[in-house]
Design goal:
three-stranded antiparallel sheet, 17% strand, 3 helices, 3 strands, alpha+beta, globular, single chain, 58 residues
Length: 58
């Protein structure tokens, strides 16, 4: 996995739309992100931690 992923890549990974991730950023929920030169990226390590903390559906 790449160390930094785009919104589109993360959305595909989690089965979400990119718009959902944009909304979550505005609401300050969801996986942590960083901004670099006006672009939004997600660290792979942060995504692993976020996914591990999600409750499992039964």
């Amino acid at each position: 996995m790449k160390p930094l992923l785009t919104t589109a890549e993360v959305a595909e990974m989690f089965g979400l739309s990119p718009k959902t991730l944009r909304n979550w950023r505005c609401l300050q929920v969801g996986p942590p992100h960083i901004k670099h030169r006006g672009r939004v990226y997600y660290r792979a390590a942060d995504l692993d931690e976020y996914a591990a903390a999600l409750p499992l559906a039964s």
